[in-house]
Amino acid sequence: MNWFGRSVVRPLVTVVAFVALNAPVIVASLAAALVAASSIGCAPSRGAWGDREGASPATIYLYTDDMAYIVPVTVDLRRDRAVREAARLVVEWPGGGALRSPFPEGSRLRSVEVDGTVARVRASIGDGALDESGIARAMEALAWTLTGFPEVKRVSLVAGATEMGPAPRPPFINHVGPKAWDCSMKVVLWFAYRGAYLVPVTRFVPRSAFPHVSAMQQLIAGPPDGATLARTIPDGMALLSLSVEGGTCTVDMSARSATARPAGGAMEDLALQSIVLTLTEFVDVRAVRLLIGGKSDAGLGGHVILDAPVMRGTINPTYPGTN
Question: Is the pTM of this model over 0.85?
Answer without folding.
Answer: no
